[in-house]
């Protein structure tokens, strides 16, 4: 673990510099993502609701289900904390999570040819990847998806042949996941065998947030009471959910170094958490104790009602030689 601590300190010193100015999303696109991860159970694909935040020069692709799930777990935490606070004794929290969700977030900055992945191992990490380049063939086929006029394109990417429907009326050269590079928003996409599908589920214009309302809401919060002793490891530092920005508290690292950290966590989770300065249970981090008369935290347990899928068919396949 000494090597891990040294590695963590070195990475911590390399806080990711701002490569792109934060900008407000102009629109949010919803997708229903489906992936046959286990080819022995093709009738049971993995499904998840995803969102794509669209800005003038950037985009952010995230799990909507993750945000919903964490909001429900926070409600459970607040209720249990309120119930146990009066006792002044040791506190036990039991949180229920419906199923595993995607914790990775993907940021595209087409104007500067930059692609960044955000992952979490208690600390948020940023890994810069090569900007995906897909050689699309645009056809004359058209269709209406929702209310959007779309055009068909085909291309090969990460071991799969994709069909994409894009809307030339929406001037965003991005799409769900790592798909990009067409003269318009990618509205839907799927591979030849429909093992991976991104289905359009709606688009909405972002309404401006009143800064005064946000400030008033923050000032209305009680000054006393429990500190944030349990942090959800995917929490953003952005107060405005519609702001597209790389987190300022994230650490820049490489794929190789991040893989080392993942392996260290899998090998000895308790030692890894101790080295990172907290205890991790499920997808929450216990890093302190309550104040304001509340008792010491005794335990936190997360019950996952769903099981992780077996994966013998990853979304990115090796290229055939």
List keywords for this structure.
19 strands, 321 residues, alpha+beta, disordered N terminus, 5 helices
What does this structure look like?
This protein has one domain (about 1-305). Strand 7 (about 115-120) and strand 8 (about 125-130) form a beta hairpin. The chain is about 20% helix and about 35% strand. The protein is built from five helices and 19 strands. The strands form four sheets. A twelve-stranded mixed β-sheet has the order 9-10-11-12-13-2-3-4-6-7-8-16. It has a three-stranded antiparallel β-sheet with strand order 14-18-17. The relative contact order is 0.22. The chain has about 325 residues and is of the alpha+beta class.
What's the arrangement of secondary structure elements?
Layout: H1 2-12, E1 23-24, E2 27-35, E3 46-54, E4 59-63, H2 64-85, E5 91-97, E6 105-109, E7 114-121, E8 123-129, E9 137-145, E10 148-157, E11 160-167, E12 185-191, E13 196-205, H3 211-219, E14 230-232, E15 243-244, E16 251-253, H4 255-267, H5 269-276, E17 279-281, E18 284-286, E19 297-304
Parallel strand pairs: 5-19, 8-16
Antiparallel strand pairs: 1-15, 2-3, 2-13, 3-4, 4-6, 6-7, 7-8, 9-10, 10-11, 11-12, 12-13, 14-18, 17-18
Helix content: 10-25%
Strand content: 35-45%
Extract low-pLDDT stretches: 1-19, 217-234, 279-294
How many helices? Answer: 5
Main beta sheet: strand number and arrangement?
A: 12 strands, mixed
Structural class: alpha+beta
* Rg (CA only): 21 Å
Mean pLDDT score = 78
Strands ordered across the widest β-sheet: 9-10-11-12-13-2-3-4-6-7-8-16
User: What would the principal axes of the Cα set say about the shape?
Assistant: globular
Kindly state the number of beta strands.
19
Number of domains: 1
H/E element sequence: HEEEEHEEEEEEEEEHEEEHHEEE
């Amino acid at each position: 673990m000494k090597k891990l601590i040294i590695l963590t300190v070195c990475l911590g010193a390399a806080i990711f510099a701002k490569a792109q100015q934060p900008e407000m999303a102009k629109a949010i696109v919803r997708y229903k993502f489906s992936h046959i991860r286990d080819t022995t159970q093709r009738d049971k694909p993995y499904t998840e609701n995803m969102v794509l935040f669209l800005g003038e020069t950037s985009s952010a692709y995230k799990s909507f289900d993750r945000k919903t799930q964490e909001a429900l777990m926070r409600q459970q935490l607040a209720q249990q904390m309120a119930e146990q606070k009066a006792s002044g004794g040791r506190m036990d929290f039991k949180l229920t999570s419906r199923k595993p969700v995607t914790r990775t977030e993907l940021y595209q900055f087409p104007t500067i040819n930059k692609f960044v992945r955000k992952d979490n191992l208690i600390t948020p990490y940023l890994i810069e990847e090569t900007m995906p380049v897909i050689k699309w063939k645009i056809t004359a086929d058209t269709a209406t998806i929702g209310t959007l006029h779309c055009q068909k394109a085909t291309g090969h990417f990460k071991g799969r042949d994709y069909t994409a429907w894009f809307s030339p009326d929406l001037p965003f050269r991005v799409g769900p996941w790592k798909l990009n590079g067409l003269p318009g928003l990618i509205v839907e996409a799927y591979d030849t065998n429909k093992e991976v599908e991104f289905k359009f589920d709606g688009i909405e214009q972002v309404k401006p947030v009143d800064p005064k309302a946000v400030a008033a809401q923050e000032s209305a919060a009680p000054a006393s009471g429990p500190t944030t002793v349990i942090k959800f490891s995917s929490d953003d530092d952005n107060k405005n959910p519609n702001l597209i920005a790389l987190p300022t508290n994230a650490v820049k690292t490489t794929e190789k170094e991040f893989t080392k950290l993942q392996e260290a966590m899998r090998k000895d989770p308790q030692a890894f958490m101790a080295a990172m300065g907290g205890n991790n249970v499920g997808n929450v981090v216990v890093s302190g104790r309550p104040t304001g008369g509340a008792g010491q935290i005794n335990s936190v347990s997360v019950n996952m009602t769903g099981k992780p899928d077996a994966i013998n068919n990853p979304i990115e396949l090796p290229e055939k030689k």
